[in-house]
UniProtKB/TrEMBL annotation:
Keywords: ATP-binding, Cell inner membrane, Cell membrane, Kinase, Membrane, Nucleotide-binding, Transferase, Transmembrane, Transmembrane helix, Ubiquinone biosynthesis. Its EC number is 2.7.-.-. Belongs to the ABC1 family. UbiB subfamily. The lineage of its organism: Bacteria, Pseudomonadati, Pseudomonadota, Gammaproteobacteria, Alteromonadales. It comes from Idiomarina xiamenensis 10-D-4. This is Probable protein kinase UbiB. Pathway: Cofactor biosynthesis; ubiquinone biosynthesis [regulation].
Amino acid sequence: MRLQRLYQITKTLLSYGLDDLIPKRWLPWTVRCGRYLLFWMPNRHRDKSAGVRLRLALQTLGPVWVKFGQMLSTRRDLLPADIANELALLQDKVPPFDGAQAQRLIERALAVSDISLLFDNFSQQPLASASIAQVHTAQLRLLDGSVEDIVIKVIRPDIKNVIHADLKLMDTLASVLAKHLPDGKRLKPREVIREYRKTLLDELNLAREAANAIQLKRNFEGSDLLYIPKVYSDFSRENVMVMERIDGIPISEVETLRARGVDMKKLAERGVEVFFTQVFRDSFFHADMHPGNIFVAKDDPLHPRYIGIDCGIVGTLNREDKRYLAENFLAFFNRDYRKVAELHVDSGWVPKHTNIEDFESAIRTVCEPIFQKPLAEISFGHVLVNLFNTARRFEMEVQPQLVLLQKTLLYIEGLGRQLYPELDLWKTAKPFLERWMAEQLGWRAVVRSLKEHAPYWAEKLPEIPTLLYDNLREQSDIQRQQLKLSAALLDSQRQASDRRFWGSLSLVFWFASWGLLFLEKPWSAIIASTAAAVKRGGVARIKEKRVLWVEFLGHKF
C-alpha cells in the first residue's frame, strides 16, 4: 500500500512538472538520473503556470498535501506572488463532492429518512469546500416556531483511507530521515509526524471540533476581540456538525475591508492580542488560523472583531511550556540574549555542556537585525532559517509539542503582513506578555491562587476538627502497634536464646558421652567439666535475658 501511494505521489508531482521548480544544481546526480529513467511520467501541463501546477498537484494528492499548501499560502515573503495567490485558493476553493451524496451522509448520520424533517431550505450546492469537509446552508426550526440560518459541515466520503495511507508513508519517510540524516536524532522527524498525525485525525472527528468550538466560545464570551459561532450539539455527530451561519468578510479580502473603512492597524493589533490571549491566558488556541478560517464582523469597522471557524485543530500548553515561552519572548523583546541562552539550557532544549557565551552570541547575530523594523521589512522565514542553522550548531532538539504553536505563529505573521505591513509586532506583544508575567509572579499570583482555592478550603474547613481527631487517634493506634511489635520481637529473641541454650547443653552432653567412650577419662572429671559448661551457659543466658528485659522496660516506660 505504501509503495503504491509513493508511486502515485511521484507520478503526480512529475506529471505536473514540479521537478522543474527545483534548480538542477540542488539535485544530486542520483535524483537526476532517476528522473530520466521515469520517462513515462512527462510534464503534461506545460501550458500552465508554476503556481497553477503546484495547486493542482496538491489538490490531486489529497488533504494532507492541501494542508501543506494552505500553510505555504501565508508565506508571501518566501514565495513568488503568483504561486502564493494560487495556493490561497486551497483555503476554501477545493472542488466539492456531489451535494446529493452529502445530503445522504447527513440523513444517515442524523438517522432521518429525509433532511426536511429537521431542516428547511437545505442547499445541495455547497457554500464552501475544503480539503476534508464541505459546508451546506439550511435553516433550523426553533421551538418557538422561528427559524435560524445555519450551516451543516459534512466530512468527505472515504477521506480517512487516503489520509491513513499518506500518514503511513510520511512515517516511513520520517524513519528513513531519522536513521540516515546527520541531524535525524535532533530533529525528531518521527515525533513530529506523530504529533501531526494526532492533530489531523482529530480534525476528522467533527464531534471533537464541536467541543473545541464550544470551549473557544466560552473563553471569549462577551469579548470584542473574537467571536465563535454557536454550535448545535444535538445535531452534531462524528462526520456532521451544525452551527450558526455567520455574516463576515473573509480576512483575505483586504480591499473590501479597506473599502468598508475597517481600521486595519487595530485589526492587525487585535489579531496579535487574540493569539497571545489564547496561548497564555487560556492555554487553548486555534491552531489552523489560515485566511480561509478567519472573518471580520461587519458591525463596527472602527473596532473590528474577528470571527473564527473550523476549530478542528487546537493546541494546548502546560504551565511549564507557557512560563518558558513567555520568559523567552520577553527576553527577546528586551534583547537579553544571555537570558535566552540560559533558558534554553535550563529547559533541556540544548545540552548542559553548551557554552553559554557562544550560544548567546549566535542568537544575537540572528535576532538583532530584526528589531526596530516594521513587519514589512522583516522576513521571519529567513530568521527561522538562520535559527535552524544555529540550532544545528548547538545540538538543539526539536520540541514536537510546540509544532502547532510554531505553525500558528507563521499564520499570524502572514495575516499581519497582508493586513497592516507596518505593524510593530514587538511593540504590540510586549505589554501583553509583561502583564501576563506580572500576574504569574508576585502578590497578584498569591491573591489569585487564594481566590482559586478559596471554595475548596471553605468546603474542607468544617471537616478540619474531625480530620485532626482522626489523625491523633491514628497516631495512638500506630504507637500501640509499635509496642506490640516490640514485645513480639523481644519474645522471639528470648525463644531464640532458649534454643541456643538447650542446643549448647545438648552439644556438651554429646561430647561428654564420646569422652566417656574413647578418651577413657574418669567419670568425675567428665561430670565436673560438663557441669562447668552448663553453668557458664546458664549464666550467659541469664545475663542475656536480663539485658533484653531492661531494654524492653526502658522502651515501654
